[in-house]
Design brief:
By secondary structure, the chain is α/β, with parallel strands linked by helices. The protein has 19 helices and 13 strands. It is globular, with a radius of gyration of 23 Å.
């Protein structure tokens, strides 16, 4: 069996992203199908995610280097050029390998004609790198590696923090773990990590959280397969504490996790409380990940593939609490999903806000009088967060918002907003709503 060309495989994976018709969500399965394993897989993922993370700057440089753009059917060749530039700018790959092996990968794509073009562009970039970089970096959006419309929205919403927000998005997020309190406490697990040679610190806000100094394969984590720990960002771990008042004193409470996949918050709730939980998701394939997570952790819930914006799945028995981790723009987790920089459009925010409003209105009907609905997004857009909740409260007479007495985030209307932090938590929004008792 011939050895797969890593750069050619990466180019094929990136081409749909560049065309606006795909994402990196299936990258692991793509690499597995191509037979890329071990350290090569790590390199391939670093290349693909790195290109997406720095895409605005790479594309601006590519435009200066090309006499004319590649045709749409040659997005894979465009991806090779971006991969070459990324290696020269941001990786420790030897320059001769970054140029020669990247240009040569065109042959593995069946496009040998592009080898000379790629070789010429990359060598010119080596010669004129300082002048070319200075030229593209005159545009602030390129220097900050984000689309202009995103930066404009953030300047308006977060005038004192927008630049730091963008810079946090441009760094890979840390690997944060959630200790399963049904197995042990955080201090005990930190000791297990030290014994395994893995340095880590407790998270400042999430009581079950641990952040590794360096990311590792989950198979290296003590007790992972036995359910002792899960990978989950600190911001996402704040869900369970926000529902503690509603659930801790009500054993067997009926809870709905309305948009549950991939299951991290579902599992955390079950680890923390004695619940009768229904995990709902509209994507049956993603719901399978919830089942797999629960199986590994030894937890039980009812999983149901259904559209939470409709009620044809509901048996009419009210829930004591509802978690709505709503579909959103993902602008708070761009560092973990950098293809968002290419795939997200301004119109998406309006469309997502409309969907979130439908979900709120529909799921409110399933909540028992006196019950709690926790609204969450991994967005930093006010339209999806504080504006969404303000509008919901205005049209829903039996709804009120709790003031969140917490030491994280900042006030944002009736909720709290976390912005992404370098080496810290992701961007997230939470609002806790109460339904009037009868």
């Amino acid at each position: 069996m011939s050895t797969p060309d890593i750069r050619a495989v990466c180019a094929s994976a990136l081409a749909p992203v560049l065309d606006g018709k795909g994402s990196l969500n299936a990258l692991d399965s793509t690499l597995e199908s191509a037979g890329i394993e071990g350290r090569d897989r790590g390199l391939a993922k670093a290349l693909c995610f790195g290109v997406c993370r720095t895409l605005p700057r790479l594309e601006a440089l590519a435009k200066l280097l090309l006499r004319q753009s590649f045709k749409r059917r040659d997005q894979d060749v465009q991806a090779l050029l971006l991969l070459g530039l990324y290696q020269l700018l941001y990786m420790r790959v030897p320059a001769h390998a970054a140029v020669g092996e990247t240009a040569g990968a065109a042959r593995a794509l069946g496009k040998g004609w592009a080898t000379r073009v790629l070789n010429g562009c990359l060598r010119r970039f080596q010669r004129d790198t300082q002048a070319l970089q200075e030229q593209v970096d005159r545009d602030p959006s390129i220097a900050l590696l984000h689309l202009e419309w995103m930066l404009t929205r953030w300047r308006e919403a977060w005038p004192d923090d927008w630049r730091e927000l963008a810079e946090a998005n441009n760094q890979p997020g840390p690997m944060t773990l959630r200790v399963n309190r049904r197995h042990s406490d955080r201090e005990t697990y930190l000791a297990r990590l030290r014994d395994a040679g893995l340095a880590a610190d407790p998270t400042p806000y999430a009581a079950d959280g641990v952040t590794l100094h360096e990311a590792c394969d989950v198979r290296a984590l003590p007790g992972f397969e036995e359910g002792a720990v899960s990978v989950q960002d600190e911001a996402a771990q704040l869900t369970a504490p926000l529902l503690e008042a509603a659930l801790a004193t009500t054993p067997g409470a009926r809870v709905l996790d309305a948009c549950s996949a991939p299951g991290g918050k579902t599992a955390h709730l079950l680890e923390a409380f004695d619940l009768e939980l229904t995990a709902l998701d509209s994507d049956a394939e993603r719901l399978g990940r919830v089942d797999a997570t629960l199986t590994r952790l030894g937890l039980e819930a009812t999983t149901l593939a259904a559209d939470a914006s409709r009620l044809d799945w509901w048996d009419g028995q009210a829930f004591d609490a509802v978690l709505l981790d709503a579909p959103c723009s993902g602008t708070g987790v761009i560092r973990r999903h950098p293809d968002i920089k290419r795939l997200r459009r301004p119109r998406d925010i309006r469309e997502l806000a409309a969907l979130q409003a439908r979900l709120l209105d529909t799921l409110w009907k399933t909540l028992a009088p006196g019950g709690t609905l926790l609204y969450a997004t991994c967005s930093v857009m006010p339209e999806e967060n504080m504006d969404q909740i303000t509008a919901f409260l205005a049209r829903t007479p039996d709804a009120s918002a709790d003031e969140l007495d917490v030491d994280w985030g900042r006030p944002a209307g009736a909720g709290r907003q976390l912005l992404p932090r370098i080496e810290g938590h992701d961007g997230f929004f939470y609002a806790r709503l109460q339904k009037a008792a009868v």
